[in-house]
Amino acid sequence: MLAGFGLALIFLIDYPSLSGPFVYDDFPDIVLNQKIQAGLFHALSYNPFRALVYLSYWAQIQFAENSSSAAAFRILNLLLHWLTGLWLIQFALRLAPERKWFAIIAGLWFWLHPIFLESVNLISGRFDLFSTFFYLAALGFYLAPRRSASVRLGFFLCLILALLSKEISITIPLSALLLSRFKSERVKWLEISAGLGMVLIYILLRLTWPMVFAKPSLQVPAWDVYFLSQNWIFWFGTLKTLIPLHLNFDYALNNHFISGAIFLLVNLISFSLILILSIRGWKAGWLIIIYPLTYLPLAVIPLADPFRESRIYLSSAFLILLFSLLISKVLEKQKNWGWVPFVLVLACLSVLGSARARVWKNGESLWGDAARKSPEKFRPVFNYANALRRELELDRAKRAYLWAKKIEPDNIKVDRNVFLIEQARRNPELLEKLKSQ
Predict the structure, then answer these.
(1) Which of 100, 125, 113, 115 is closest to 50 using CA atoms?
(2) How many domains does the chain have?
(3) What is the pLDDT of residues 262-303, one digit of tens each?
(4) Cβ(156)–Cβ(195) under 8 Å?
(5) pTM for the full model?
(6) Coil, strand, or helix at residue 262?
(7) How far apart are CA 159 and CA 194, in angstroms?
(8) Are residues 400 and 298 both part of a single domain?
(9) Within this chain, do residues 388 and 345 fall inside the same structural domain, yes or no?
């Protein structure tokens, strides 16, 4: 009943976004990716370390009636989000079976949280969906009470599939080790040691394979600058998960050296204290340490964008798990009225999610929302202007291009588009050209 209710609810919430177009990294990953359009071997060889996701892209293109539509890709992403919620519930049941409401709270909170809509509606967010699904599945198999051959096979299979989805999965063996300490159970050394060996081989092979960037490598910041930024962005992402307000498809986050250094010190002190307390007998500390561990690859692999909501899908899921465990303890003590505020919170999340889904309805609404929330960032403002131009809203498009020109005065793309608009006003035959470019 819970699974059916969750599927119906998330479909109703996200339904307005299904008609939206491909955006952002969807173009280099799917629309403009000739290898995905070709045979299976070419699709798998495009990036073997994320082969599972590209296999799903290839399969959908083969069976899709209209490969230029993003709707089918989004529906599959939505189903993956639902299935990941089911695994989260199963994982919660094995993590703390004595907590009556823990799994229900975690599942509903995860399904309805509006921050996850970016992972569903951005097709390239499927990397995070697949990796989180198999990450939780692997840990679920690790916590299984029976150590049968099928359970061990399930752990290793899920570990391999997670590694073939996204690099963040290299932390699975360490997370499993920490779970043993949390549960005060005997460490399953076969899974841990063999898993670490597989991860090591994966890392060595990954380092020898050329990186494929969706953006020019010149846009990727230096490692030390990026690392310092991630020390405060880690808490920024935590805040967004707990209080999902001002969610934005394209954040304008700058590199703040001083705040990054301060938060680096905060992180080192706080996580060291948690580790010390865990060693001294605080079992919950071992579970808490897994949260920054799921974020670790984001901190050490520089990317062009310092923060994107889809990238914290796994870490946010685990944060929800942690707080759901705390809330379940409170609800068991306050049986009479404790459910009232939680139901109200779920209702608020549903309303926020529905509003956010409508933002993804088309390019104009998506980039318009991003531009209003990041008014000093060129990319969302320029993309908003492009969306208006394609809808032949020429006056509004010109104003948006002038807005973008204030941000980057020397960008020739802005001048070119303003010139095209002026030409189309004099010659209506050029209007069709504005729609297609």
Answers:
(1) 125
(2) 2
(3) 999 999 999 999 999 999 999 999 999 999 999 988 888 888
(4) yes
(5) 0.93
(6) helix
(7) 11
(8) no
(9) no
